[in-house]
Amino acid sequence: MTNPKRVEIGWPGLGITVTAELDERNAALAQSLWDALPYRSLQGHALVAGHHLYHVAPVHGLLHQAATYKVDDRRFEPDGTIFASRLQHLGIKYGELTEPMPATPIGRILPDDLDSLVEAGHAVWEAVYTTKKPVIAEVRRAGGAGGHSLPRLKARDQETDALIGDLHAETERNWLEPPQELVDLHEGRIPSGAGSFQTVLTTVLFVNGETRPLGYASYGGLVRAAYENMSLEALRHMARLLIATPGEFLGYCGLEKVWSFTQRVLDRIDRIDDRDDFVALMAHMALYVNCLGGWNLHLFPWQLGDHLRRESAVA
């Protein structure tokens, strides 16, 4: 039996660290995470699924690597189970979940650390829902050094590679600090005037609704389609269909850099004749947009709906 891969997941701002063991159920996915360590990321919390922590992991392979083992319903997995998601998330179940969905487990928090995990979960919920004080997670090999870096894919074509370089730099600027455009948007500074009758909540709601699927489904989906051998011609066509409209809308709502990068991507795709170059570009757009999506979920004023609570089930 091979020695287990142990990782530490810490939240320095909370003074909490837990240890996990990665297992062999999805060995390739676990290895991709292991190879990416150490890294830091904004810690998020599920908003509709229950007691679940997740953050965007800077691991390009999560977008496309096939799982060898899946559970039909993550609700019934033990607390402390760690999941890798094609949404580029590393997730941890720490209590009751309400959303029934298949999932891909890659490890588990050690039993002695489950109480600390619950403590972290409640603190992160308070940060996301109420205080808006960012909580940063650090994931590292157990006993190893901490730190952080974002992976940078290369393209053979020089102009495509230069665009990837700009995307990588912009993602790094926004990874651990809230993007100024999103801060401005949430504070009502919207150059285009988006928001009927000067409303802001309407605009940030629509931005949230467009950003998440753009990263998760559009760019992430294009990476998966490329690995599933969709032709390059079809990939280009699908990219034009999937990214132009939401990119332009997000630019109008205040995320002008998203629209600028979208335009540059659209300008390049017809000139890309190498599948690996296409994948690298779409993967970096996915990571960039997923990063923005994480910050938007953190900044969103969820507490405004505190008076709205679901009814308890009738016995």
Notes on the structure:
This is Cucumopine synthase C-terminal helical bundle domain-containing protein. InterPro entries: Cucumopine_C. It holds the Pfam family Cucumopine_C. The protein is 44% helix and 17% strand. Helix 3 packs antiparallel against helix 7 and helix 5 packs antiparallel against helix 6. The chain is globular. A nine-stranded antiparallel beta sheet has the order 3-9-1-2-8-6-7-5-4. The chain has 315 residues and is of the alpha+beta class.
- N/C terminus separation: 49 Å
Q: Based on CA inertia axes, which overall geometry fits?
A: globular
User: Major sheet: order of its strands?
Assistant: 3-9-1-2-8-6-7-5-4
Task: Report the mean per-residue pLDDT as an integer.
Answer: 96
Written as H for each helix and E for each strand, in order along the chain, the element string is EEHEEEEEEHEHHHHHH
| Beta-strand segment tally | 9
Number of domains: 2
Q: How much helix is in the residues?
A: 40-55%
* Low-confidence region ranges: none
Put simply, the count of helices is 8
Strand content: 15-25%
Radius of gyration: 20 Å
Structural class: alpha+beta
Largest sheet: 9 strands, antiparallel
Topology:
Elements: E1 5-11, E2 16-22, H1 27-36, E3 39-42, E4 44-45, E5 50-56, E6 81-85, E7 89-97, E8 105-109, H2 114-131, E9 136-141, H3 158-175, H4 180-186, H5 201-227, H6 232-252, H7 256-269, H8 275-299
Antiparallel strand pairs: 1-2, 1-9, 2-8, 3-9, 4-5, 5-7, 6-7, 6-8
Helix pairs in contact: 3-7, 3-8, 5-6, 5-8, 6-7, 7-8
Give a quick summary of the entry.
With 315 residues, the protein is an alpha+beta fold.
